[in-house]
Amino acid sequence: MKFITQIADMRTGRSELDNDRITVGVGTCGLSAGAGKTLKLLKDANLGIFIDEVGCVGMCYAEPVVMVKQDGQLSIYTKVTEDKAEKLIDAIRNKYVCTEMFAGHALEELDYYKKQKRLLMQNSGIINPLNLNQYIASSGYSGLLNALKMTPSEVIEEVKASGLRGRGGAGFSTGVKWSLIAPKQGRKYLICNGDEGDPGAFMNRVTMESDPFRLIEGMTIAGYAIGSHDGIIYTRAEYPLAIETLEKAIKIAEEHNLLGKNILGIDGFDFDITIVKGSGAFVCGEETALMNSVMGHRGNPTFKPPYPADKGINGCPTNINNVSTLSLVTNIMSMSAKEFALIGSEKSKGTAMLCLTGKIRRTGVVEIPMGTPLKEVIFDIGGGVIEGTFKAVQAGGPAGGCISAKEIDIPVDYDSFNSVGAIIGSGGLVAINDHACIVDFAKFFMSFTKSESCGKCTPCREGTTRLYEILDRITKGMGTRKDMELLKLLSGYVNENSLCGLGQMAPNPVMSTIRKFPEEYLAHIDRKECPTGSCKNLLKYNITDKCVGCGNCVKHCPVHAITGRLKEIHVINHDLCVRCGACYETCAFEAIERK
Amino acid sequence: MMFKEEVYYMRDISEVLKKYSKKEELMPALHEIQKEFGYLSEDNLIALSRKIDVPLTQISGVATFYNWFKLKPIGKYHVSICRGTACHVNNSEQLQKFLEKKLKINAGELTEDKLFSLECVNCIGACAKAPAMMINETVYGELTEEKIDRIIEDLKGRK
Asked: Tens digit of pLDDT for each residue in B89-114?
């Protein structure tokens, strides 16, 4: 029982967390908002309170976030930029609350957190990501200890009982996935899929940056359960901070015998983790493409079967799970499957980690119990949209679908999202307001999938390009009613005939926007009008009687479409006009209207 | 992606290649060459091909597949403007045009003084801070034209 005392000895980190301390969030979002400078100013001020660097607490909109615990009282300050740091330093020195940046005395007091349930995020922004003592003091490694009291197959049963479903997109039962590979003999690989290529999703980055030991512990438990000694974390080269943090965390874990040979002194319990950098290819999120990439090949997907559990890396059985899935395993083993299964809805257990972005007031990472109504996520947590009214939210990235304002009452779970033609997918939620054109939105996704298609199979390579071209035509006012039919037909073909998930799901944004906003498509086609005024080619410019006849617009028009005498109202020849907007921008009298 | 400009052309690749001998090490080797030299030159790829005994066609296949690998020299400051969804709905297209005008180059090009290169990327994962861009390994968020102007001018001043 040597290993249990070893962990118990390390629980001393609690005092570090309980004592007075100032924390600054220095995750990627925090740093981009200037947290590095704030941290330096606080350190230079010699306040006599321990200053710690922590990860992201999830409130990306309010970065840099500084939490001050002084005389046992916690105060959370938001948007503490360089120029405001001096005020905060004064407040700490003289022990008063600086009202200007003050947000609350506890996270739960904030509107943003009232409806959240933090499992994966429980340490994010609270502990120093690279302080193992603090991690263990926050019940870290109790999950692994609990798992070691069971046999590997009991661990798998426990994960099955928890009802955990993969957080990477497909939502397949994690326990079942593990039970397929566990009986296999020989060398087995465990891959953590951290290739978060979905635009609009960055929760895996937050986990890797802010709580790397949770992932390492989860992988160790998974390795124990399925009998694998080789762990690989495949993550994006675009996440330099996450890679650096993980590398350091792995080293620390190795030094403490929590990774490597004979972990915690148990004979034969070996587990290593190596990091493999992805190189900016969206398709590598797909299992078979990912494995090819790990092996140093082009990230082309291959036909399944053989499934990775039969033949994966170097021909060995391979198990692939998402970062959130593996991290949640830590929570399950720490709290018991029964307790975990109490959270969430009937068929979707536990919590969902979502990224709120787009035209939303409070952007960031949120973690909610599955089954929370989407409306509450957007309005109560996210604070609604900025400028205008809420129009739709794109769920699940470019492979997902959009959920319109009418459907916003649905709960956040796998099956409800599927029922409206969307997926939770990686968990990205990009909200748009009524100023955004839905055809342009769909076109944007097609331009993304078209450029990210690996080019191996024809339906995806050609199909996505043609879909893009049709949408492009519509936004330029050259679409016909036939194009609508063509879009639907082609979407079906691409979906049915593509080799991998990328191609199969690529037409989803087109299908869901056509179904939910047909009138907006028809306005572009029949009336050659963009109701939101976003499609530049469909705008009409007219000169109103505010015109003083200065002739400035005449000089700026590249196609000489504007005529008129000096000091008289000018006119635009619509046959010549190329709708570049140059006149609109130069007119000092706001005499040009754009509709 | 930081590389020392003064030793840019003089550096010998053999130093980097010492570590690599196996075929499976292709990707880590490519990452390191890019980190040291800023991009993957044809000469360096040929040298790598000989060292780890992987045909150049295969290496070229891998290098061209992934967006991360650059086959052309990049500037001292490599600007990656994010064109992901969250950035797109927050007008990153406009910012891309602004950057192109400001640096007087198109996306995918290098300025004459070799100080800046510009690239459009699909997502850098800073969606909550959209619109965002990355210069070398630093992320800048909540961009406006004025803010970009300040950042670029500041870097120009630093040289």
From this structure: 999 999 999 999 999 999 999 999 99
Residue ending a domain, among A306, A340, A374, is: A340
| Superfamily per CATH, domain B77-158 | Glutaredoxin (3.40.30.10)
Domain ranges of chain B: 12-65, 77-158
Nearest to A200 among B127, B138, B141 (CB): B127
* Inter-chain residue contact A357 with B28, CB threshold 8 Å: no
Residue A11 domain-assigned?
Answer: no
| pLDDT tens by residue, A541-579 | 889 999 999 999 999 999 999 999 999 999 999 888 888
CATH at residue A557: 3.30.70.20
Prediction pTM value: 0.92
Q: What is the pLDDT of residues A85-123, one digit of tens each?
A: 999 999 999 999 999 999 999 999 999 999 999 999 999
Q: What's the structural domain count of chain A?
A: 5
Residues A267 and A400 in one domain: no
Counting one residue from A and one from B, how many pairs have CB atoms under 8 Å apart? 137
| Contact flag B123-A357 (C-beta cutoff 8 Å) | no
Write out the DSSP string of chain B. Answer: ----GGGTTT--THHHHTT--SGGGHHHHHHHHHHHHSS--HHHHHHHHHHHT--HHHHHHHHHH-TT--SS---SEEEEEE-SHHHHHTTHHHHHHHHHHHHTS-TT-B-TTSSEEEEEES--S-GGG-S-EEETTEEE-S--HHHHHHHHHHHHHH-
Whether the pLDDT of residue B4 is over 90: the answer is: no
The predicted-structure confidence for A516-538, as pLDDT tens digits, reads as follows 999 999 999 999 889 998 888 88
Chain A residues touching B90 at Cβ < 8 A = 358-359
Which residues of chain A neighbour B139 with C-beta distances below 8 Å? 28, 31-32
* Pick from A282, A357, A441: CB nearest B128: A357
* CATH number of A362's domain: 3.10.20.600
A445 & A421 share domain: no
H-helix segments, A283-322 = 287-294
Instruction: With respect to residue A207, please indicate whether it lies within any of the assigned structural domains.
Output: yes
pLDDT bucket at B10, cuts 50 / 70 / 90: very low
